[in-house]
Amino acid sequence: MQIQPILTALRRHKAGTLLIALQIALTLAIVCNALFIIHQRLSHLSEPSGVDEANVFVVTSMWGEQYSKQEEVAKIQQDLATLRQLPGVQDVAAGNSYPLSTSGWDNFVTMTPEQVKPTTDASVYAGDEHFVRTLGLKLIAGRDFRADEVANLGNRENIIPPVVIVSKALADKLFPKGDALGKAFYSMSSTPTTIIGIVETLHRQDVDTWSAPYAGESLIWPARLVRSMSTRYLVRAKPGQLEAAMREAPKALYAENRMRMIDPKDGILSFAQVRERAFERDRGMAILMGIICVVLLAITGAGIVGLTSFWVGQRRRQIGVRRALGATHRDILHYFLTENLLISLGGIAIGVLLTFGLNLWLVTRFELKVMPLAYVLGGVVILLLLGQSAVFAPALRASRVPPVEATRPV
Amino acid sequence: MGRGKPCQTSASKKYLQRYGTPMFGYYLQLGLRSLRRNPMLTALMVMAIGFGVSASMITYSVFRAVSGNPIPEKSSQLFAPQVDNWGPQQNQDGEPPGALTYTDAMAFLRAHQASRQTLIYRVMLSALPTRANSIPVAAGGYAVTGDFFPMFNVPFLYGSGWNGSDDENRAADVVLTQEFNQRMFGGANTVGREITLSGHDYRIVGVMKHWDPKPRFFGVWGESGFNDPPDYYVLLNRMLDLKVDTWGRNSCRGDLSFTSYDQWLQSNCVWLMPWVELDTSSDAARYRHFLEGYAADQQRAGRFAWSPNVRLDNVMEWLEKQKVVPPESRISLVVASAFFAICLVNTIGLLLAKFMRRASEIGVRRALGATRHEIYAQYLIEAAAVGLAGGLLGLLLTAIGMSGVGLLFAPEIAQLAHMDISLIGLTLVVAIFATVTAAFYPAWRAAQVQPAWQLKSN
Question: In the Cβ-directed half-sphere of A105, how many Cα atoms lie within 13 Å?
Answer without folding.
Answer: 16
